[in-house]
Amino acid sequence: MKFSVRTVGAAKLRSGTLTDFKRLPELVLETPLLLLYTKGGSVPHITHEVLQLITTDNQAVQQTLPSTFLIHEAVKEFKKGLPKFVGLPEYMTYLSVQDPALKTPQGFNTKNDVSVWTHSGRVSLDADRYMDMVEAFQPDMYEALSNGDTNEETTKKKIGKVIDSTRDFYEDCLQRHSTSSILKNVSLLAVLEGGFDLEARKKVGQTYSDAPVDGFVINGLHNNGGDVEKIDFEKIRDLIEASIEPLPENKLRVLHGCWTPLNVLNLVEMGIDVFDASYPYLATERMCALTFDFEAVEWGTEVEKGVESATEISLNDAKYREDFTPFLSGCSCLACTKHTKAYVYHLINNRELLASTLIMIHNTHHYLEFFKAIRQAISQGKKLALKMR
Amino acid sequence: MSGSQPALTFKILAECGVSKARTSLMALPHHVVETPVFMPVGTKATLKGLLPDQLEAMDCQIMLGNTYHLGTNPGPELLTKAGGLHKFIGWNRALLTDSGGFQMVSLLKFAEILEEGVTFESPYNGSKMLLTPEESIKIQNAIGADIIMQLDDVVSVLTTGPRVEEAMNRTVRWVDRCLEAHGRPEEQSIFPIVQGGLDENLRRDCVKQLTQRKVNGFAVGGLSGGEAKDDFWRVVNLCSGLLPRDKPRYCMGVGFAADLVVCVALGIDMFDCVFPTRTARFGCGLVETGQINLKQKKYALDFRPIQEDCECSTCKRYTRAYLHSIVTVETVACHLVSVHNVFYQLRLMRDMRESIKIQQFPQFVRKFMKNMFVDSEVPKWIREALSAVNISLT
Ligand SMILES: [Zn+2]
Ligand SMILES: [Zn+2]
């Protein structure tokens, strides 16, 4: 994989392209990039046929260990890799250790093993077993195994242990990676831990700065799941900066989590290149359609201190019973152009699966449009801002 | 719709020179439907997670909605405000609704049939409710389907004695009340329902009376309720022989592939069944030999599609092994198997239509039965039914 990136203007804002994937030589992806979220291999509620009705652009998907662990034997036997096994071979496939939409229970990792939670319970694996799976899955990009079990409450002592074990995992993975013929030309990403310890983060960043990898995952700020939306960004801004600061410019920076749209914009400005789509998925699971609005503004435009407009509406609200308007007026997605709030309210109340499909269509479309607008604003020398009400 | 265009025109394109099978065009206000046709059932204003766009992509031409469910929720007032069921669900092709009577009698406790209508206890507040033939039509007028069904007096097919005759005669009386109450005859066709249980004379009598009414098509009702297959095909064959040639014939609640093939041979044009989508929910995919349960361990390493030569969007991309890994865990599995199963039914009907057009229907039937019963004898009732319309399997 080749990553060409340039920093734009005075800020740390970056824009780039990902090309030369061995498996997908024609594919071009632009950063800041959104990875489509998957469960059990597929975008939740969305078959490939429906995904094509949402977007026919080049896209990337995130496959996670918790939701693919159980199929590993079948994929191994299949021999043609995970992207083809799950029916999404045209999509750049990123493999992550944890599932950003699923809260990772704390306190189960050991020095040599990492626990992940599948739909039938906890499993734990060491670096060797993990690399066996990576070789069977043949993703385009994957993370080194990592501990990641830290958050605001974690003690310095524990943070130190997490850093050390993640370092060991990284070295084992790198060892296997560099000698594997299957993984030749597959991108390995190193994982940067450090919890909420600013000094530790600086040090970790420095020790990895010349690592022979294609990019870095900034990890250990949270334990995934919906709580990430509630994180006070000012508490983590310096920590993220400390991790990024020592890193070389020309390598990819990934940060997982269901960040609010406003925090995504903050992270883009700090130079994060890759995000996941757990946010629109979790909104769908609570039967909410994303409605936040955005616009490109000139740098230096003082963002109005207004009330932040509502980011979503709950379609499971009786006030929509007779509302024959789309989820979001002006939205060009299939759900909004052909269906109404009243219909989806009816579907929700009859526990019909189509409700989730329609909401997921809109949310995925809306979030992809958001990322498109982010990239477009950067290319025009502007920045994207949320519209205030 | 313009007043000059009738709500239904039926044009026979070809008839099998051997059996009673025929293929026709049934022009309805929302779509010209090719028959023989299978209508998937969208019970509560949705076909189990599939988008109207997906159904159109596989050339589904007509779908069935249940009046009992739609009349209760979202209700006729809301559907009227929405501009009818077509607009409410975003489906521009044809729709058919049942009368609601059958579901009431089968789903609700204490449902009772009186001359006035079906009385039942409201599942919401326990109060006594009444569905009259007029009320059923009023709801179906609000739903706005292209074809609507009369309210009929439903008795179990296993019932014998004077009750069967009473139900048959009441069904005839009710069709007149339905036709009288019909508010949109230019846009919707009411189909009367032939009743009479397994009694040949009652069936004859019923057809005789119903064919005197001014209607655009007929349904054969009261079957698929646990009767012997031997009785089933004889009643279908009797009715299709008595019903007029130039009007569509609808056999209610039939959906197993072998039954569809036999009934087409017997001269039936329309079918509906919840089976293909219901069985998909449990992870069962339809194949040439019947169905396979993708939950079974033996499919964990089976890298073939559900059915090898199937051209549906599921089979072109997904393997049994992948479906096995997500079946009953992810909703996507249900969508994928539903797509295949509905496609399977639609393709079966299309293949039959094509074979009738080129006078190859008997050959098609022989090949189909050979594949379906690859490991077993073709059941006696199928052999007899087919030989009644001159198709021999040997
Ligand atoms: Zn939309
Ligand atoms: Zn198929």
From TrEMBL, chain A:
Its cofactor is Zn(2+). Keywords: Cytoplasm, Metal-binding, tRNA processing, Zinc. It is found in: Cytoplasm. The keyword Protein biosynthesis does not apply. Its main location: cytoplasm. GO terms for molecular function: metal ion binding; tRNA-guanosine(34) queuine transglycosylase activity. Pfam families: TGT. Coiled coil: none annotated. One of its GO terms (biological process) is tRNA modification. Belongs to the queuine tRNA-ribosyltransferase family. QTRT2 subfamily. This is Queuine tRNA-ribosyltransferase accessory subunit 2. It comes from Apolygus lucorum (Small green plant bug).
From TrEMBL, chain B:
Gene3D superfamilies: Queuine tRNA-ribosyltransferase-like. Catalytic subunit of the queuine tRNA-ribosyltransferase (TGT) that catalyzes the base-exchange of a guanine (G) residue with queuine (Q) at position 34 (anticodon wobble position) in tRNAs with GU(N) anticodons (tRNA-Asp, -Asn, -His and -Tyr), resulting in the hypermodified nucleoside queuosine (7-(((4,5-cis-dihydroxy-2-cyclopenten-1-yl)amino)methyl)-7-deazaguanosine). Catalysis occurs through a double-displacement mechanism. The nucleophile active site attacks the C1' of nucleotide 34 to detach the guanine base from the RNA, forming a covalent enzyme-RNA intermediate. Heterodimer of a catalytic subunit and an accessory subunit. Zn(2+) binds at C310, C312, C315, H340. SUPFAM superfamilies: tRNA-guanine transglycosylase (SSF51713). Residues 19-372 form the tRNA-guanine(15) transglycosylase-like domain. This is Queuine tRNA-ribosyltransferase catalytic subunit 1. The lineage of its organism: Eukaryota, Metazoa, Ecdysozoa, Arthropoda, Hexapoda. It is an enzyme of class 2 (transferase). It comes from Apolygus lucorum (Small green plant bug). Residues 253-259, 277-281 are annotated as: RNA binding. Its EC number is 2.4.2.64.
